[in-house]
Fold this sequence. Notes:
Blueprint: H1 6-28, H2 33-53, E1 56-67, H3 71-76, E2 81-85, H4 95-101, H5 117-125, E3 132-136, E4 138-140, H6 152-162, E5 169-171, E6 176-178, H7 181-197, E7 209-212, H8 218-227, E8 234-242, E9 248-265
Parallel strand pairs: 2-3, 2-7, 3-5, 4-6, 7-8
Antiparallel strand pairs: 1-9, 8-9
Amino acid sequence: MNKFTWQDLLNFVITLVMGYAVNILSDKLDMPTWLAATVILVGFIAVIVLSLSRKFHTVVGTYIQTTLRNVNEERQHAHKGLIVPLSMYNRTISEELLAKLQVADYSELDFEESNLAPAIKAIEVNKSQITHCWILATESSDPEKPGSKDFVPAMINYIKTEKGITNCEFHYDKAITIDDDALITQKNRFIVEEIFKNANHYGLKPKDIIADCTGGFKSITLGIFLACLDRERDILFIGTKYGENGKPGGPTIPIITKFSVKNSEGE
């Protein structure tokens, strides 16, 4: 016996409605059956053609931006989960430093004055609630050269020791190979989407997780952005103030953005 499908049901309903419409035209308007059937068929085709010809474009459906100006606001908007990209440390990297990284020794690292400071700030902003943090680190395509993944254990040690964040489980097993921007964006988007989809494995909901897009390569940021086109997936950006010369010089300003996209009919 063949299995009855939704397609079969749809075909049955369409046939039934068209048959009923033909009978109505034939009885009420005294129209020949063949002509009534032709009119119904032409009208049905016209509806399909008009539906397919409608033009849509993607627009922002909702947009909410929240700036966190103080510790109380940070606590109010803290998330249980955080996704944060990690840039390559922009200070001199010596053999001695690499050796210390092997044992998570951060004594020679100037985290607060480096380009890793925003990542640490992103974690610190969520300090009051955070239980899981996914660090999107990088690795070089040359195995002899370090990547930002080599700095992760030392940074975690720093965060636990100096920032007092000890209730968070850190995940950093999926390093992104720095090779081609198109591939980096694609891989990073996939990783971030998987984190949101598997949130329940960590006792979280997608809305409990926020993705930071401050650090990392632009292709990494783009991957995060594309994975968060959903109103339940918040984005965090660690901004700052700028001086008259256009250079950053003020305190960091955490900014949370929540938005979604939708299709809108128009030209």
